[in-house]
Amino acid sequence: IHNKMADYADRLSAYPNKGVCGLAESIDPARVFQNKIKSLAQMIRESKHTVIMTGAGISTSAGIPDFRGPKGVWTLEKQHAREEKRKSRSNAKKRELEGTTESDLKSDTTPPPTQKQASSEANNNASSHVTPNNADDSTNSNNSEETQSSAKKVKLSSSFEQAKPTLTHNIITKLIQEQNSNERQRSFFHHCITQNVDGLHRRSGLSRDHLSILHGCVFTEQCKTCNQEYFRDFDVGGVSFQPTGRKCTADDCDGDLIDTILDWNDELPERDYGIAMEQCTKADLCLALGTSLRIEPAGSLPLSARKFVIVNLQVTPKDQYATLIIRSRVDEVMKALVEKLYV
């Protein structure tokens, strides 16, 4: 099976500053967990406007890996890169030793080098080796490119097309969509902001009106002329707003369709980011689910809410600003939360 998550990672430009990867995960003890769920449920009941912000951690139970977790895409790439560098150094040392042996075999008629010659030769050999201090230096660009190429071969667990919405996706949709469609029943959640490109919020039935998509979607292409979106059941390919080869079918348009996936230096979509900022600014509570909050400017959005809660297995750079932090798997949190809200 061709892995679409690996394919997505391969599309992005080379970018060395991907932040901290592979941090240890922790889970709250059962009693602590229950007390935190109780506190969260109370905060949601008291909030007049609650916004959800989601990251890769809500899709791991669908078989889509995250980026910075112990088995995350970038974590595995970095591990693989370190292993390739170690092998490269080992092979260089082996070649050096083999070259010395061949030289020794031919030295029967050659006088031994002087101490000065030996010292000079050792210095010349040492300057050509890859060391921990210069392994990432620009002078070793060929080795760096080789390492990046090998790192991209890391195998992942699921394709985007195979992935199904998780319990968390479905609960978010239920608490936004069904509640908003029933004027007599109060809404617990009001809007969802996602950094994910996997399209699972849309597949769960969440209305686009209640969803801000910050980094694009592998299933969505957009008309370059009239901005009409098309949500497909296949990965449309591409990155950084390139033509997909298909045309807009809206009346009197026939414009070129382009992908919606952001590359590292692309600006966030103006409409979605604008709505996300507006929603967080008016929010009494922002609930950040499965996100490391390390990618900016998205990572700072929850700070605009009056209160914000983090649900994540790893520490984040925004922990000090959170009203509450729950260390547990997102699906378990959402299941317990729904049970508490509907008591």
Account of the protein in words:
- The strands form two sheets. The protein has a six-stranded parallel sheet, sandwiched between helices. The chain has a four-stranded antiparallel sheet with strand order 5-4-7-6, with no helix packed on it.
- It is globular.
- The protein has helices spanning 4-11, 30-46, 73-105, 115-126, 141-151, 167-180, 200-203, 270-282, 330-341, and strands at residues 50-54, 191-194, 211-213, 220-223, 229-231, 243-247, 256-259, 285-289, 307-311, 324-326.
- Residues 105-158 have low confidence and may be disordered.
- Helices cover 36% and strands 12% of the residues.
- Strand 6 (243-247) and strand 7 form a beta hairpin.
- The relative contact order is 0.18.
- Helix 2 crosses helix 9 (330-341) and helix 3 (73-105) packs across helix 5.
- The longest helix has 33 residues, at 73-105.
- With 343 residues, it is an alpha/beta fold.
**Residue runs with pLDDT of under 50 for 5 or more positions:** 105-158
Helix content: 25-40%
Strand order of the largest sheet: 3-2-1-8-9-10
Q: What global shape is seen?
A: globular
Describe the biggest sheet? 6 strands, parallel
Q: What order do the helices and strands follow?
A: HHEHHHHEHEEEEEHEEEH
User: For the CA atoms, what is the radius of gyration?
Assistant: 26 Å
Q: Taking all residues together, what is the mean pLDDT?
A: 80
